[in-house]
Amino acid sequence: MYFINLSRNYILPIPKPYHLISAKMKIEFNNLYTHFIFSTFHRLPVIPEKNRERIEKYITGVINNNDSRLYAIYANPEHVHFLVSRTPKLSEETLASIIAESSQKFINQYKLCNEQFAWQDSAAAFSVSKSAIDPALGGTNTSLISPNIIAK
Length: 152
What we know:
There is one protein chain. The protein has helices at residues 49-64, 92-109, and strands at residues 2-5, 10-13, 33-39, 69-75, 79-85, 124-128, 133-134, 139-140. It is α+β, with helices and mostly antiparallel strands. The strands form three sheets. The chain has a four-stranded antiparallel β-sheet with strand order 4-5-3-6, with helices on one face. The chain has a two-stranded antiparallel ribbon with strand order 1-2. It has a two-stranded antiparallel sheet with strand order 7-8. The longest helix has 18 residues, at 92-109. The protein is elongated, with a radius of gyration of 21 Å.
């Protein structure tokens, strides 16, 4: 099947429907920046300040171990913000599930909260353009996550 463009005098083949194409496109380079927000169950302020940094470091390790890069993180008493450049092998939902499940187990195992800890069943994920990332700081524009903690 062909498409004829009468105004320019040429004929173009119409591509096959996507489900008939057998080749797989490999992604060599990506810019998949995502700002995640996890909330504690019922948004209760259960993350104590004295354990905030330990929780942030643990989440940083989980992200790094999943072929992704953390740009910034901050744990508030009732929610956590973090900005990630993720591998295209993982969807936002998959990465968020890995982080939520492992960090929840970590927090409960080491009793980093005064009660049983849980995240809400859903989280927020916002795509962020490369122009919002500040390469000079190695982190983020301070308007994205405040107070700004740069992951090292």
